[in-house]
Amino acid sequence: MLFKIYTISFLDSIRIPIFTHNLSFYSMTATPLVSIIIPTYNRAHLIGETLDSVLAQTYTNWECIVVDDGSTDNTEEVLKKYCDKEERIKYHHRPINRPKGANSCRNYGFELSKGEYVNWFDSDDLMMRDFIRIKLEAFSNEINLVICSGFIVNEFLKNKKVFELKENPDLFKDYVLWKFQAITDSVIFRRSFLINKNLFLNKIKRGQETEFFSRLFFKLSEKSYKIINIPLFLYRQHQDTKTAKNQEYIKSYKESQAFIAVENLKKSIQLKDKLLINSCFKLLIFYFFRGIENRHYNNSRFILNKLILLLFKSNKRLSIELLSLGNFLLLINKNSYRIEKRFRNYEF
């Protein structure tokens, strides 16, 4: 497949390469509605750029549903101006009877949406002009989701770095091992594929798309998805926020990460994949000991109980060791580097 690279002016401040390819253009007689769903919270200073990138799309049959998670800045004022000028942009508040959080907003946006295709998007990221068009061209009757690459940029939209996608991944395995770096913006779904599936889990506070995608990617037929290794969006990383979150032990985040690792371990055991089992096991051991260090005993106990149950059938000796040594450490509320090293060096 041949690709041509063009450069266009974007937001009057940066210049972004736009990719087009030699596939025939999506039939002009078949222009299905695409729903773009954007959760937002206190992003009044950024969401205008995101909406400008939606308005710049070469594919025009879309609706953009913005769901506000209770912003306290002037997000509503910004959105009102866009909605007054463009009827395809729709602004909603998260209902008060729904849990707070981006996942709740994503699910509510899906309920409101009408598109045959659905693409969740973040309120600080930007679409390339052909973001929708190129993705839609990749669909066939068998394809249920299309995954594209993107640029990682800093908060000022500089220092662009492409995260490339493997052309023929073992989708679930490579995603769990983070050898396949799809994020929320990357994936457009056929709506019918999502019907009657659990969408984003409200209890997940960290790694929302990680849980969602690993669940949907598990045992997904290779015929039902398409990889487009073309960067079609800008993924903005806020360095100060990212650094602070990585350094701070936030209990709700660690509980989410432990839950995701447990669920991925279950799936890895079903697949009988030793590399995946080792990876998930070592990650859970890490979370177990960090929980003890930070007096997050409930999370450590949750991890320990799950590991004992999941591993008992295949490895009774390891389960008994976990039962005795893990509960001993929880009893004395004290960490042990020696015991941690013992478990982290274990290979299945």
TrEMBL record:
Highest taxon listed in the record's lineage: Bacteria
Transmembrane helix listed as a keyword: no
Stored Pfam families: Glycos_transf_2
CDD domains found in the cross-reference section: Glyco_tranf_GTA_type (cd00761)
All copies of domain Glycosyltransferase 2-like, residue ranges: 35-164
InterPro entries: Glyco_trans_2-like (IPR001173), Nucleotide-diphossugar_trans (IPR029044)
A molecular function (GO) term: hexosyltransferase activity
Residues forming coiled coils: none
Keywords, ordered alphabetically: Transferase
PANTHER family referenced in this protein's UniProt entry, alphabetically: GLYCOSYLTRANSFERASE, UDP-GLCNAC:BETAGAL BETA-1,3-N-ACETYLGLUCOSAMINYLTRANSFERASE-LIKE PROTEIN 1
The protein, known as: Glycosyltransferase involved in cell wall bisynthesis
Organism phylogeny: Bacteria, Pseudomonadati, Bacteroidota, Flavobacteriia, Flavobacteriales
